[in-house]
Amino acid sequence: MTHADKTLELVVEDVIALTDSITEFRLRDPAGKALPGFAAGAHLRVQVAPGGIAAWRHYSLVNSDGRADATAAPSAYRIAVRRDDHGQGGSLWMHTQVKPGTRLATSAPVNAFALDDRADDAVLIAGGIGVTPIVSMAAALSAAGRRYRVHYSARHPDQLALVDELMALAGSNLTLYADQGPLPALELDTLIAGLAPTQPIYACGPAGMIDAVLALAWARGWTRDDIHFELFSAPAPDASDRAFEVELRQSGRVLAVPAGQTILDAMLAAELDPLYDCKRGECGVCQVPVLAGDVDHRDYCLSEAERGAGNVMQICVSRARGARLVLDA
After folding, report:
1. Taking the domain 244-327, which CATH number applies?
2. Please, is 271 exposed, middle or buried when counting C-beta atoms within 10 Å of its C-beta (0-12, 13-18, 19+)?
3. In the predicted model, is pLDDT for residue 181 greater than 70?
4. Highest CATH level, class, for 122-231
């Protein structure tokens, strides 16, 4: 986590089940003061404690109020969390330990998925819990009187959250999809093929969906600047990952990085203090210079030229192709 963050202590006002696996948490200032404002796409870092160990998780802020100043000084924050019993424990902790009256440490709102103020005829694509920032974008575009369409997909219709609020905002400009049940499945190739490269795309969801959107849009003429995206979870470890060593020149340390661990997490376990934010390879905060070694780049922020040069890497997701890396860290 970056050091410049302001920490807030908020109290949970309400806990609301949206689906059988997604829960909304409403947070307020304990003294009833207005909260710092935010723009569509922003998130909170929330301190959780799975297994009794403090950690930070990122949850998008939800706003479905279509008024222009709705998030300038909100009385409450809304976040929604999907329970994942096989994840890193943050969502399970939120679902089992957080109740009305619980106090949580959070950051002030952070926005790494900002909606362009000039965006018009935008295409908003949501997968699963990735709908949370998309609702806020639909509200902002509605308030600005701009054109947009929402495409929202889940595994099953029962897992589509916040649909009523989206419907109130987008109306006939909302299309719902599901992999199972009566709704059609989202065919991204068909969707992207029916768009024009002048339409900005905003996508939030699992890594597979984001990868498909990027590949299809780039192949059909979109520029990098016109495709905006956010992953809602860190990429899963690859079955082919191997252990390696990383030498940290500034720290004077050599760390063993197991197959199931990132360089960033190895540094944190060694009680080092690297800068980081998203832990998903999107924000670029954890970028470090590479002095020696071949990098397996897995980020979403470096250009192809930067990847080819091999001079920098994102330590939250990228790994060594060989047995050893030397970093200026």
Report:
1. 3.10.20.30
2. exposed
3. yes
4. alpha beta
